[in-house]
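Q: How do we represent a protein-ligand complex in a form that can be generated token by token?
A: Start from the inputs.
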Amino acid sequence: MNLKSDAQHWGSLAKFFHWTIVLLIIMQATVGLVMVGMPKKPNIIPIYSFHKSVGLTIFALALLRLGWRAFDPRPAEPAGMPHWQVLGARAGHALLYVLLFAVPLSGWWFDSVSALRPLYWFGLSEIPHLTGPDKSIKDFASQTHAVLFWALSAVAVGHAAMAFIHQFINRDGTLLRMLPGGGGLASAPAAAISQSIPPLENSDAQIPPSASAADAAPPTREPGA
Ligand code: HEM
Ligand code: HEM
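Then emit the structure tokens for the protein with protoporphyrin IX containing FE bound:
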């Protein structure tokens, strides 16, 4: 498996960032939602500290991911994907990137304006506050963090649904190629053939050369897309 992406495949580092961040966000959301429902006693402080440390880790991973993307343009979208869908997918991915930064930043901001205690990353190094304390906007900052989190959840659910639709209805291999060990896209003609032509009953029958998957024009890569 290559570290870098190419015109057909996601590289292993892009996959690592994608799925590590997804798993951490699921864990982070669970901890966040459980901890805010717990009675406000001193024993919740380690849970809050853990949530903040994991959130800062997600923020750092998102920065690394975006930095890597500058050197590692994404593979091409499936050939034949309608233009409006390509634009929609790109807008959705851009929004996911924005929320990937906005959610941890808003948590960090809330922690800063609350200024309860110094912020540590897993007790190892002190992280500066983003602003000075301001109790008058504490509630607003907390609500902003929650609203952005729910926005991220909604966009991510839609995004995952689109990945499943591409994989199992369009059968273009979009989800498979993002999975560890997954290959490239199914070529457009091959996917179309598998959906529109019933299985050949006569094993001697020949597929006309014009319908062969080998004739498929490979999708063109669009750097920086
Ligand atoms: C991607 C990263 C993050 C996710 C997905 C996330 C998610 C959440 C969720 C779901 C809640 C509960 C919201 C509610 O129902 O009120 C929450 C609360 C909280 N988060 Fe985060 N969070 C992230 C990053 C951070 C960071 C980086 C910090 C601070 C450095 C932080 C600090 C807090 C605090 C202090 C609360 C409690 C809010 C309150 O008591 O009103 N979070 N977070
Ligand atoms: C919090 C959750 C998620 C976030 C923030 C997220 C974010 C992203 C982003 C930003 C991209 C575009 C990568 C780039 O162009 O650099 C992407 C691609 C992708 N994601 Fe996610 N994702 C999440 C969850 C999921 C889930 C749950 C699935 C599937 C079950 C999924 C499947 C995919 C696939 C298949 C691609 C590649 C799409 C393509 O080749 O055009 N993602 N994701």
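The CA atoms of residues 71 and 149 lie 29 Å apart. The longest strand covers residues 119-121.
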